Amino acid sequence: MKRVLYLLLVSGLLYSCGPATRKEQATITPDSLFKSFHEEKLQLFPLLATSIGDNRYNHIFPNDISQEYRGRVQAFYQKYKTQLAGIDRASLNEN
Fold first, then answer.
1. What is the pLDDT of residues 70-80, one digit of tens each?
2. How many angstroms separate the CA atoms of 42 and 6, rounded?
3. How far apart are alpha carbons 69 and 74 in whole angstroms?
4. How far is CA 59 from CA 17, 25, 69, 79, in A?
5. What angle, 0 to 180 degrees and rounded to 10, lies between the N-to-C axes of helices 67-85 and 30-44?
6. Percentage above 90 pLDDT, the chain
7. pTM over 0.90
8. Strand locations in 3-93, DSSP E?
9. CA–CA separation, 46 and 65 (whole Å)
10. 17 within 8 A of 31, measured Cβ to Cβ
């Protein structure tokens, strides 16, 4: 009897620690996509942030000629290109 309870307890814990399943896939709205794009872009390009009056990234000066930085920029643009392609254009209004 103890083995059964132990097995149920362990399987319950493993199930609860697993990845959360969503009943409905969250849809990406253009508004939320553009807002997150803007925020990430300011982090990647802190001089742009400073030039528009956002002082949160003044302590960062990126090494924009390094391979690591160029890879981050490429991954950034690829991420948003993929997400933008996932938006259903037929559901958009004229605005």
1. 999 999 999 99
2. 51
3. 9
4. 38, 38, 17, 26
5. 170
6. 58
7. no
8. none
9. 15
10. no
Q: In the numeric block, which tokens belong to residue 57?
A: 């990234």
Q: Which pLDDT score is estimated for 94?
A: 85
Entry field: residues in the chain: 95
Residue owning tokens 């933008």: 84
- What residues contact residue 76 under an 8 Å CB cut-off, 6+ apart? 40, 41, 44
| 42's tokens | 């300011």
Tell whether the torsion through CA atoms of 59, 65, 67 and 71 is positive or negative. Answer: positive
User: Residues 6 or more apart from 3 whose CB is under 8 A from it?
Assistant: none
